[in-house]
Amino acid sequence: MTSPGVYADLAAQRACWHPVAFAAALGTEPRHADLLGEPLVLWRGPDGSPRVMSDLCVHRGTALSLGRVTGDEIRCAYHGWRYNADGRCVAIPQLEDPSRVPAKARVAAFRAQERYGLIWAALEEPRWPLPEVPELQNGDWAMVTAGPYTWECDAARQVENFTDFGHFPWVHPGLLGDPSRPVVPRHEVRTEGHVLHYSIVRPEAENSDDFPVFGNEQAGPPERRSRYELHLPYTIALRVGWGAEKGMVYFFAAQPIGVDRCSGYVVIGRNYNLDQDDEVIQNFEDTIFGQDQVVVESQRPDRVPFDLAAELHLKFDAVAVAYRKAMRTEGLAADAPVGIDVS
Ligand code: FES
Ligand SMILES: [Fe+2]
Description:
Elements: E1 7-8, E2 18-22, E3 31-35, E4 38-44, E5 50-54, E6 68-70, E7 73-75, E8 82-84, E9 89-91, E10 109-115, E11 118-122, E12 142-151, H1 155-162, H2 168-171, E13 190-192, E14 195-203, E15 223-231, E16 235-241, E17 247-258, E18 261-270, H3 278-298, H4 318-329, E19 333-334
Antiparallel strand pairs: 1-19, 2-11, 3-4, 4-5, 5-10, 6-7, 7-8, 8-9, 10-11, 12-18, 13-14, 14-15, 15-16, 16-17, 17-18
């Protein structure tokens, strides 16, 4: 569905890295993922590195993810055609000489990498590298993953919700905000190319007994400092601190599955509570994302309208405004969106 207006341009986002799976979920068995309306098959090659290819056998369009991986080849489940890791068909068993493969018999193979506990894919030469988050590669920090959270909205809606300050007391009372203190603290956004930088200091929500996930008990008057980097189009590195050495990194990346469907991956690093059971943070995130999902899936349109006149923005919506401007400036949102409807 493409209605008039300015929306995310899926074609332009082919030249960006996007998450397609948690690294721990990917083995040598092929699995399916959708990215920007494109069906993909993923697996790990014999050297452990991720492979990402189009999930459409060129013969009859069967999903290659139904097939079998042997060595560094994937074999289609329907007629057994074999493809190597660069997408070239190397054997057609129905031929007397199975190796006499026509040159056209190939599928697209895409760039892939593993980092921060995620498998990333780019459908075209990526314009920017992944963000640098050394904390998540420092073996001294504990890491927990949560999600993926699959929502019926575009990835921009999910990213924007993650970084929306005004909703904390209303949607997450007692967990991320306090309804008696709804005022959004002042903050300014600095846009550098495709990265938005902003920080916020706000009164700490108490650690709840159910979810004792934050490190705030040490730092006098409870105050939480959150330093954000929003890397266009859909990745956020949020560093949370309480004025001392305790630190937490929230890394969030949304997979644009299609025009109005996305999946959010959370990777959290911390240098305190190192022995805490992963489930404490995972249950907390499940609760928070569950509260958000109901609200965000109700938003209309179900995609972020990047035209500033389409919604009512106030001063405390500075991040949303800067995000809309930067997405347009970088050519990631456009008047005539090129989108592939997967619904
Ligand atoms: S459809 Fe894949 S081999 Fe025939
Ligand atoms: Fe939220």
